[in-house]
Structures are given as C-alpha cells and as structure tokens.
Amino acid sequence: MKASIIVFPGSNCDRDIAVSIKKITNLEPVMVWHKETSIPESDLIVIPGGFTFGDYLRCGSIAANSPIMNDIIKKASDGLPTLGICNGFQILTESGLLPGTLIRNDCLSFLCKTVSIRVENNETKFSNKYKQKEIINIPIAHNEGNFFANEDTLKKIKDSNQIIFKYCDQNGEVNEKSNPNGSIENIAGITNEKGNVLGMMPHPERATCKITKLTDGENLFKSIYEFLS
Amino acid sequence: MKLNVKIMPKNGVLDPQGKAIENSLNQLGFNNFSEIRQGKIIEIDIDEEEEKAISIAEEMCKKLLVNLIIEDYEIIFDREK
Amino acid sequence: MNKITEKMVEEHGISSEEYDFILESLNRDPTITELGIFSAMWSEHCSYKSSKYWLSQLPTKNDFVIQGPGENAGVIDIGDGYAAVFKMESHNHPSFIEPYQGAATGVGGILRDVFTMGARPVALLNSIRFGETSHEKTKHLLTGVVSGIGGYGNCMGIPTVGGEVEFNSSYNDNILVNAMCVGIAKKDKIFYSKASGVGNSVVYVGSKTGRDGIHGATMASAEFDDNSEEKRPTVQVGDPFSEKLLLEACMELMKMDVIVAIQDMGAAGLTSSAVEMAGKGNLGIELDLDKVPCREERMSAYEIMLSESQERMLMILEPDKEDIAKKIFEKWELDFSVIGKLTDTNRLVINHEKEKKADITLDILEKGAPSYKRPYEINIFDNESIQEDKYKNESPISILKKMIESPNLCSRRWVWEQYDHMVMTDTVLLPGGDSAIIRVHGTNKGLSVTSDSTPRYCASDPFEGGKQAVAEAWRNLISVGSTPIAITDCMNFGNPEKKEIMGQFAGVIKGMIEACNTLDFPVVSGNVSLYNETNGKGINPTPVIGGVGVVNNLDIFSDQNFKRINDLILVIGKTNGHLTQSIYANELLNYKKGLPPKVDLEEELKNGLALKELITKRLIDTSHDISDGGLLVALTEMSMKNNIGYKVNITKENLNSYLFGEDQARYAVAIEKSKIEEVRSFLIDKNIFFEEIGQTNKDNIIFNDEKISVTELRDLYENWFNNYLSEAS
Q1: Predicted ipTM?
Q2: Which domains are assigned to chain B?
C-alpha cells in the first residue's frame, strides 16, 4: 500500500511525514512533485506542512492552483483518504475540498508550541484509534491557523459531525484561554462531509517519537492504517 | 474625510510576493501581462477637512503605516464620499 | 570614464595610504568598478584588516576538526561518517536600519554559508542584543528582529532552537543580531570554495541581481552617525521561498559528482565570491556581466559586482557537466547562467557591454589587502566592592521575585515560540535550557548547541570576559551531558581605531585563547563586526561564542528540569559570593563598578568532566549551569517546567552574595535518593568541591522559613515580555 506525499516548492514537512508514515504504518511513502498531473496509484494522499510558494498572496492559494491539484480534487471527491496538515489544511480549504478558511492568528504572530487538543469525533478514518473526548498533546507551528467559517457553513460542519479536533487545556476544557490562535469554536481539525478528507493545523507527525517525549500523533496514522487494512 | 492609502514596494526593491504571483499566473495560462507587484490599501476615515486630513494621513504614513525603507505610498481620496 | 576623485576614494572607505598602494600596483588610475571592488574587498568586513593579526592566534585544531576558519563554515567530525558544519555571523547594522529584513537576511546568509558546504542545515540559533527597555526604539527593534528571524527560518523549515536576548544601554543605537547555523553532512561529501581547473565554467545560480544592498559591506564597516537612518536604500529584502528552492536545488545537485567548487554570494556579492574562489585556487577568473541575470534595467558593472541581492550562489563546474546542473536549477525555477571561466592569469577580468571594466591581479586584492596591528591598551576596572546593599535586610524570596521578572533573567518563551523549533522532528531538547539537542537524523546520536556571551564581564575585564564566554559555552554543553567539540565566534566591538577598543578586542582574544586551549575547544569559524559605535559611544565588547557538542547516545542526557520530589540538591563547584558585575549588582543595585568573577579554567575542566561522567553513568539526569543571576535563580529555573520546587536552608553572613553571586565553574544538580551515596563518593574521590543544600519539593519553593508557590514565580517569570510589549510607550 502506498501514501502519496505531495511536494510543492516550499513544502518543509514532507520528509517528517514520510518518516512517520514509514515508521508507524506499512504504507510506503511516495513523493509526488506538484508539477505532475496525476497521483500514482495510492491509498492515501498527504499534503504536508510548509510555506508553499512562500505563503505569498494567501497561504496555500498558489499551491491550490498547481497542476497536481486537479487530480487530487478528483480523487478526494471520489473518496480517497486525503490528509492535509498545517499548510496542507490551508491548501485544502483554498482548493475547496474543505469548508471554511484559515486566517491570521489572533495573537498576530507565528506560534510554535505543544498544545492539547480534544478528540471530538473518533468515528472517522483518521481518529478511530483515539477515545472519544481523549485529550492529546500535539505541536502547532503556524501564523495563519485561525479557522473561520460563516454561520451557515459552521452549522453544516457541526450538523454532520465534521469537527474532529478542538483546542483545549490539559483538563480538556474548551474555552477562550485554551484557544491558541482564535479559531472559531476552538476548531483544530475538520473533515469534509463525506469524512474522507481531513485538514488539521496541529502536526501529528511531530508527535511520533519517544525521544522527544511526544507520541500522541501515532494513533492518527494507526487509525488511517487500520481503516485501510 | 475618507482616505485610501495605497502602499507599494519601492521601485527596484525585491518583491518576492509579486514574483510568486506572476509565476503562478503564467502557469495558469495568463501570458499577456508583464509585471506584477503586490501592495496594500488602507482605508482611513479622518474627521477633518481635506487639507488637514491629508496632512494627518501623511504623518500616519511616515510614523507607522509605511515602511519608507522599502515602500512608497500614495494618498487617494474619494471626493464623492 | 569618470575620473576618480579624492572624495570618491574617501566615500569608498579607502585610506590615502591604501589608495597609493592601489595606484602603484595598477600603475594607473582604477576604474570606478575597480574602486568599488577594492573598497569591498578591503572593507573591514571582508578583509579583517584590524582583527586578522589577533584572530590568527586562536587555536583552531583538535582531533575532531576537519576544516577550521577560512572556509564558508567550520567542519567537525561527529563520528559514524557524519560531520557538523557551522558558523555564526552578524547582521547588526542592517537590522538596526530595517529590523525585519535585516534579521531575516542575516539568517538567510548564515544558512547559505552552511549549505554551500554540502550540509543540510538542521538548527539555527540567534544571539540578539537591544538597548535598554526604556529606549524609544527598543520595542520596535525587538519585535521586528524576532519576526524577521522567525519569518525566514520558519519558511525554510529549519528549527530555531536556541540563542540569547539581552537588553543593555550600550546597544541603544547599535543593536546586535548574530545568527548561527548548524548543518550535517556526510563526512566525505563536503564542498569547498577553492576553484580548480583552468577553463572550467563559472556559474551563477539562484535569484536575480538587483540594486539591493549595494555597498552593504562598506556600510557594515562604517561607524554610524545621526544621519545613518538615511542610508536606508541599501537594505536587502529577503526571500526565504527562493532560498528554500536554492537549498533543495543545491542538495539535489550535490548528490551528483558535478560541483568543483561552490560559494554563496554574501557580503560584497559577486566580487568577494569570485575573488575568493579564484584566489584560493591560485587561478584567474574572467566574468562577462552581460550574462548575469538582472532584475532591474541598466545595471552598471559597478552595481552588478557590488550588489548584495540575496539567495545567490557561485559555482565552478566542468563545462561538460553544465547540463546536469542546469536541469536541476530549472526544475526548481531558479536562474542558471554561465557567466565566465577560470583562467591561469591570476587576474580578475570583468567585461560588460563590450568593455573591459576591471582587470586586477588577484594577489593585489587578496594578499595585498591591508592588515593592521592597531595600537591597543587593555583597560580593566578598579577592584572595588559594594559598600551598601540596599536589599541587605530584604528576604531572599522577595529579591528572587525581582530578579526573575527582570528583562535579562525572565523567560524568553515569547521569543522562541515565534520560531518553529520543532520542524524536522529532531529537536530532542527544546529552547529554554542550557543547550538545545538536535538528533542526527536517522541515528541515536545528537548534537548539542548553545550560544553565549557576558558582555558586562568583557567590559570590566576583557581577558576574564573572553575566558568566561568560552567557558560558559563549554559548561552549557557539559550540563546536558554532551562532549563539547568546537566553537564558532562572532566578535562584536566598537571602533578598532581607538586603542582602548582595540585593547578590548586583544584582551578578549587572549582570554579566549587560554580557555580554548585548556578546554580543548578550538575555533573553527567566525565573523568580526567592528565599528559598532554611534557618536563615539561603543557597545560593550561582545564576543558571542557558539558551541557545538556531541551526545553519543540519546538515551543518556541531562536537562535542567527537576523531575522528582525529595531529590537531593547539590552544588558542584565553589561559591565564593562574587557579586560585582553580577546581574544582582548591575541591575538591582545599579552598581556597575568592580571586576567580574575570575574564571579558573582548571577548575572548570575538573568540575565539568566530573559532571559529565556522572551523567554518562546515569547517576545524574538533572543539571543546570549556574550563571547569570546566581544560585537561587538557577534553582528557580529548574523548578518551572515540572512544577517541582525546592526546600533549601542556608544561613550565611553575606547571604545575598552567596545566593546571587556569579562565581564560575558551578552547576546545580538534583540526585535521586538511591544514587546519592554513589555520587558523593565519586565526587570525594575526584576531589571535587560540592555542597548539599536541600531537596526538591512539591509545588513550592521554601527558603529557610519563607514559602512561595512555583506557580506564582512562574507567572512573574513568564509574563515580562507580554507585559512590556503591551504597555504603551
């Protein structure tokens, strides 16, 4: 089984994702350059974090218009599991695969730290290994991670259980104080309506290693793998 | 008095954003354009007569709004408003 | 052609003696392009003319050094076929003029120095110094520099894992921005800048050339005056996105056997890279500037040669291998242009628009570069002591509260949370401790990295200050359990034409030499920034030392955070209570006289190696260097992360000196109960001085009879930056 990892100019978490996937699952990571026009036969698409095209114009906006995106949009719409992390999440909203948008952090600065997030829906391809309402610790590192959607969109997202992760404190409280970037309703990760496309700002691939004392991201990859097997 | 301050990178100063947008548009098949530069517009409503408002806006530009080292600015106002 | 006037020569920072030498060597008047080239190459920044004499005395070798000073960066052997490549560089003046872009391009420059040698950058550190917090420009400069550093490093995807931030009035008009980069390469795949092969192609890659930073190198060597803010148009704009492409393109090309030599275009741009590469190979070089990719129209030869546009590299390729390289750079959408060739003439020849614009023998430029042994006078402060301690009767906890919420001791979290310090997923020890540790990707080995300097010590006694800067870097690497290997230095000083400033430089170097020798901790790369002076007032002498060490097994290292309650707390090293030049004296008592603590290097070596052995034997996993702020501040820093405090009973006559003095060669450690006996007898056997001062304690800090919660202290410690930046200026 294979995971296609899309590499854009300015992607910088591509290697990290590949290392985690290889270590945790039996998926073979395949790097796919953004100028390709089709995704090779694969079971998972991953759009990694980074600063594609320098984050110029709007984060993810230029990448969302890259040649490879047509095929990603097609395959994701057909139901192929697709994961976008950080800048990958921004690319997914810019390309229309996910609702809402990501705007500048309300603290107005880049923020890199380990945060707690709560699993809001563990019945997805991406979260089945977590317990419902489990509190996990995963690093964030972004300048534009403030999720925003208008009322209608937000209602739809909620009605169809698309919120997967919310920022919380160590005790699982979801409130203004535990919201690092101003995201509406503390949203840290959502899926599309079908549930096969996940976008999240926190970096699960940065929490897959005992030596850095962060391992809570492993179950995300295990969830995907279990679903696929 | 409603004013717009248009801020653009100075001529000759590298504009990485403009360059990236230009490349991307090229790749999307737009070829009939030459140079793209990205700037910003700031709207300000100053509660003063025209002349005074402009001079206040000038001061705002110099003190905060514009990075005079790498940016130029222009104060534009709409008389109809 | 324009006749060169006296005024033009002066404006190019060339002295009349230097100009006479140029006339004599050329046997004619130089062209304006040539004048620009001489000016750039002979600037302090490129020629090290005031510092060379002293720098050449620094120790540069030990068993691990593969490449010492003189290349783009230093290289050390870290075992298992890998090498670490590192260097630190200043971008002080540009950052004062435009803090965001100045700091950003400083980071960009140091990254190129490292990846041009074939190493993938794996860590960035930044040592930044600003004026006093009440100075009108400080907030603006601080926020600009921090976001500039973050903006560049974050976009590149290279973790920023450490550094220093200091506030001191001596930097009011001359801030310091020193950036360090560490990279990792295969030991047998290091690329150098020495050109070889007559007839080989000179290839330009990267971004296009614009009029950015023309005369940046000259600017970086000129003393500031009140008009200098008008020198602004010379500031370069960084494009980290292009640099990321350049990095990946270079890494891809370096996997193939194609590059003969490579060097980044940094200060003095095309001029210095062409001259240095050909010079090192004892060859000549001929450039056709019509082939240089330009961003702006009608650029003159002078401008092209001196432009400091960022994100560019110069390479030497064999002509039949050009196509391989070209393909890769085209894939990454970067410019690639063959702009000249190597010759056997030992001359730099510049052609532009069908005219020869320059023709200079390289020996004149390089070996003819001036080198001065400037007059110097090493001054040290009088040995005075504090007569009146206004906090003599105040409780230690109440003093401690003032200390940890002071700008130079409080938490730097506000700074490092703006830097992506976790990308690449190899950051084992995060910022905020003595050293950061980065895993060597794919192995169980780590690199420890730190940057240190105590300028107030150097100002009061340059020799002791020079020793201390090196010793503190060494200590910080030891206290995480690593083996210190080598250092890079960034020497920031005032105007070297003044003998007392030159004395500071000489004194600091002499101190560094002693420390490097005793600790077997050589200098492998570095940078000098002089003329950090405004209206005759120089900065505190600031030799920033970037240290790199190796952790052979990542299962065994130490950090500063208390881990268990009821651990025994022990201080290794003797506390004499040296108070002058401490933060307590300088900032709380506002007493700036007197001498800094002496550094006993034998004691450093003995105590440090003993601690390292204890860590390696798994007897100690919690250790912290005692430096700025002294013992009580160190213990408090150890409490913060895991919310474990300490219970300490100390009664002494001069209690404040004991608690807040800054004696060197000391570490605070916490030892698990079951291991205490073994540690005790080990230290007694080795004849190491130590004191048992108390135990770790749940949630609270108890000093004699006074108690305070760790949470209360943490709030003070963590909030200073936010409070400072949110208050109206």
Answers
A1: 0.96
A2: 2-77 (3.30.1280.10)
